[in-house]
Design goal:
Layout: H1 4-10, E1 21-25, E2 30-38, E3 41-46, E4 49-54, E5 58-62, H2 64-74, H3 80-94, H4 97-110, H5 116-128, H6 135-138, H7 142-151, H8 159-171, H9 176-185, H10 189-202, H11 205-217, H12 221-234, H13 237-244, H14 253-266, H15 270-278, E6 293-314, E7 317-337, H16 340-359, H17 370-376
Antiparallel strand pairs: 1-2, 1-5, 2-3, 3-4, 6-7
Helix pairs in contact: 2-3, 3-4, 3-5, 4-5, 5-8, 8-10, 9-10, 10-11, 11-12, 12-14, 13-14, 14-16, 15-16
Length: 380
């Protein structure tokens, strides 16, 4: 959140719409931008504003084509991720946005995750990302801007541009509820993942809990796996295990299976004992619940009949008032399709596979015997 103000201030920058030139001045300044000549004066539209200089102040000038040729010369050979980082930085300094993003993508492909090169590159794309934001979004309210940024994260977006947009989302102040809503409801996996990553970077207990739960609750299996892996890399697997364990006794069999899969992917050893204890209850619904699917059908005919008479006597005359009743005949079916056996097998299989993934050892088919298997395992 410390970068929020600086990032929002960058939203005011607008790149020149034409190819940039480099203008070097005798006092040592270097101006990059579109150049228009008015008599003996050069008007240079830079990223930071418009600068007017006299021709006599100029010591040298390179055109857009010459700048690109310089980049191509420097790109000769293979200097690895660090070279691509420096080329991206230089291209940004030259005002060559397309080249900057291309070199940034190449750097991300070669940089080791978590390396110093990757961190420096992500800082560069964070600074450049506001250039990807259209004017209407720059002027929008924070919640609307967050929605617009998330929806710009399309599957075809390059890795560097995507990283820049996520950095903007992570720095946008006061939009945690909006990001959580987007992480649940956006139709594309890429968009939900961008919102989740932004929440992860923003930090805080509520965001941390939300991100961990997406490893179970998201509707896409691939995304659940990605989130679980991110939780594992985050190093707080013990907290994730505590928060997700309740899913092993969920009312929904599918949630039990997803929870076991997520715990295996997170890979924290604390999940082993919890899976073992939940094993004997794998196919047992919680009190008052049932895994069975029920169906109800009724086909009846209603007939009216006289069931009695009320006799009233008035002025020596007897009057019989009929009492009308209804008789219903037909068929009523209430069917329960018992899925308990099938669900028990599937859940037990998921728990067993999770234990295999976590320990490298098979606890066996009988969940009741898993406690003994755990006691026999060496404590490490």
């Amino acid at each position: 959140m410390s970068h929020a103000v600086s990032l929002l201030s960058l939203l005011a920058f607008v790149l020149p719409s034409v190819s940039p030139d480099e203008v070097r001045l005798r006092d040592g300044r270097v101006l990059i931008g579109s150049v228009q000549q008015h008599g003996v004066e050069l008007v240079v539209t830079t990223r930071d504003g418009v600068v007017t200089v006299n021709e006599t102040e100029v010591s040298g000038r390179r055109t857009d084509a010459q700048l690109r040729a310089e980049l191509e010369r420097l790109a000769a050979g293979d200097g690895g991720a660090f070279q691509r980082l420096e080329l991206a930085r230089l291209a940004r300094g030259y005002g060559l946005g397309r080249e900057m993003w291309a070199y940034a993508d190449a750097c991300l492909e070669q940089a080791a995750p978590g390396s110093a090169v990757e961190r420096r590159l992500l800082e560069l794309v964070r600074e450049a990302a506001p250039e990807l934001v259209p004017e209407r979004l720059r002027q929008a309210a924070p919640e609307e801007r967050a929605r617009g940024l998330v929806r710009r994260v399309r599957p075809e977006l390059s890795a560097a541009r995507r990283a820049g947009l996520v950095a903007l989302l992570a720095a946008e102040p006061g939009v945690d509820p909006t990001l959580r809503s987007l992480a649940r409801r956006e139709p594309l996996v890429s968009q939900r993942l961008a919102a989740i990553e932004a929440l992860e970077r923003r930090g805080g207990t509520a965001n941390e809990r939300f991100v961990q739960l997406r490893s179970v609750l998201d509707r896409d299996a691939e995304l659940r796996g990605i989130v679980a892996e991110r939780v594992r890399q985050g190093g707080d697997g013990a907290a994730a295990v505590r928060r997700l364990t309740a899913g092993l006794l969920s009312d929904a069999p599918g949630i039990r299976i997803r929870t076991a899969t997520a715990l295996a992917a997170i890979g924290h050893p604390a999940a082993v004992e919890r899976l073992v204890r939940a094993g004997p209850l794998a196919g047992v619904p919680r009190a008052g619940d049932s895994f069975a699917k029920r169906a109800h059908m009724m086909q009846t005919t209603t007939r009216a009949f006289i069931r009695d008479f009320d006799v009233e006597i008035a002025q020596a005359a007897a009057v019989a008032n009929p009492q009308i009743g209804n008789a219903r005949t037909g068929v009523v079916l209430d069917v329960a399709v018992p899925a308990v056996i099938t669900q028990r097998v599937q859940i037990e299989r998921a728990y067993r596979q999770a234990l295999v993934d976590l320990t490298g050892s098979d606890p066996g088919r009988d969940p009741v015997a898993w406690a003994g298997w755990l006691d026999r395992r060496p404590r490490g």
